[in-house]
Amino acid sequence: MSVKKLKHLEIQTEHEADKLLIEKVIASGQEHVFRWWNALTENEQKKLLSQLKLIDFALIQDLIDKYVKENKHTSQKTATLKPPGIIPIPQNDLQKTRAIEAKGIGEKAIKSGSVAVVTVAGGLGTRLGADRPKGTLPISPIMGKSIFQLHAEKIQAIMKRCETTLPWYIMTSINNDEMTREFFEENRYFGLNTDNVSFFTQGELPVIDLQGKLLMDSKSSIVTNPNGHGGTLFALKEKGILSNMKERGIKHVFYHQVDNVLIKIADPIYLGYHISEGAKMSPKAVQKINPEEKVGIIGIRDGHLDTIEYSELSDEDKYARNPDGTLRFGMGSPAIYLLDVDFVERINESNVKLPYHKAVKKAPYIDENGGKVKPIKNNAIKFEMFIFDALELAKKSIIMEIIREDEFSPIKNDKGESSPDTARQNMINLFGRWLKGAGIEIPTDEDGNVKGVIEISPLYALDAEELKSKVNKDLVFNGELNLQ
Ligand code: UTP
């Protein structure tokens, strides 16, 4: 038995590997994680070691040096910025013809089975404050269907329309993986074939205090945080999803975030443009509401496509206008991407690292007396990778502008902006526009909101055209309409 003396306590380990690990932790200045070692059961000791084993201490040290000691903010992208070329929302005949051609190409790809959907749902949903995974939130205006069910029904509808399978991969994190899987089990996968729905967990990183010390969650575990949506690119490889995709002949991945209730899953027009241009990673883009809107913007930074965070955009760029009055950097990111499987594979094989971004937040922990602390001030630093940092690695991308009201309504907060209330209203308004397009009168108030409540299941109609072809033109809207 080897014994490691640590101040007043002796750490006993039977295995050489454990001893080396403990020495590494101590050499990294994190010996406080063994504070309760002698009082832990053997199982608890094992649990702590197995958690520590997964940590890249060299990386953590780098992050501490950069973000705590030098107090840098993020990767700090400063450079010359140019607006990117965008595929606009079709206005003229030529643009409309191109969109129709692109749709044909996209549908062909879906029909051939070369497209899959990746939904990222590993985030903690801290701003929303729910104690369940965000995707389980009941959200549809009448039936109260969950966000996951709405996504599932869209996938089901596309499969039916294209007579194909559209495999669905859902990224979770250790905090919500079990609950997410259980939710799908309880709801019988919303009618989807279980062979076509997979879950995979993303990586985690330790959370440190403002001095760079690992925070403890219990006497035998440290506080960790999912490694950001950028972690998707690496989890796809590590969890065997890329291999599974290749076996199935999948070439293109439609990536979206779980919390956008208006998402147009596997939009064929977008796919068509991406494929015909031989693009490798392509973002959708949405006009910013105003210069101050807190979204990342899509721009060309030093010759590479990139997303620049709101906080990193200079005032000069933020307020710059084109001659026609529109914002020069007005293309915000709705976090919707197409990624080619070979591109994700190459990122993994070439060992490219994405930068880590720092966020100072509140994180509960246990103090040196073992008491649980729920901080009222920011006490912790979390590190995350962002998916858009991979954009500059793509040899080719297309950027397609979308109409916000039709495709982008994320749920971030409990109340107010980007909340369940706005998401429901935006769904109702979208269905109202579809119905108006089909010739049905739908009254709206002075803000343009539908007076009443409407729900249209994706299984009834996936878009305005399908609705128009199905709905009874003599229908009179009496304030509530539920089409399932
Ligand atoms: P956000 O950071 O906007 O939302 O992530 P969140 O994590 O759900 O909520 P907050 O920030 O704690 O309030 C955007 C999307 O990326 C996913 C989230 O699940 C959400 O769909 N995400 C985020 C991950 O899958 N993993 C992460 O590590 C972070």
Task: Note down, in words, how this protein is organized.
The protein is α+β, with helices and mostly antiparallel strands. The chain folds into three domains: 2-53, no CATH class; 81-412, Spore Coat Polysaccharide Biosynthesis Protein SpsA, Chain A (Alpha-Beta Complex); 418-484, no CATH class. It has 14 helices and 24 strands. It starts with a strand and ends with a strand. The mean pLDDT is 94. The structure holds uridine 5'-triphosphate.
Q: Summary?
A:
This is UDP-N-acetylglucosamine pyrophosphorylase. The protein is an alpha+beta fold and 484 residues long. It has three domains: 2-53, no CATH class; 81-412, Alpha-Beta Complex (Spore Coat Polysaccharide Biosynthesis Protein SpsA, Chain A); 418-484, no CATH class.
Secondary-structure map:
Elements: E1 2-6, E2 9-13, H1 16-27, H2 42-53, H3 57-69, E3 81-82, H4 93-111, E4 115-120, H5 147-162, E5 168-172, H6 177-186, E6 197-201, E7 204-206, E8 208-209, E9 216-218, E10 221-222, E11 224-226, H7 232-238, H8 241-247, E12 252-257, H9 268-276, E13 281-287, E14 297-301, E15 304-308, H10 315-319, E16 331-332, E17 337-340, H11 341-349, E18 357-361, E19 365-366, E20 372-373, E21 380-384, E22 400-402, H12 404-407, H13 420-437, E23 453-456, H14 464-470, E24 480-483
Parallel strand pairs: 4-5, 4-12, 5-6, 13-22, 23-24
Antiparallel strand pairs: 1-2, 3-14, 7-11, 8-21, 9-10, 12-17, 13-16, 13-17, 14-15, 18-21, 19-20
The structure holds uridine 5'-triphosphate.
Residues 120-127, 134, 171, 173, 202, 226-229, 231, 257-259, 384, 412 line the site of uridine 5'-triphosphate (UTP).
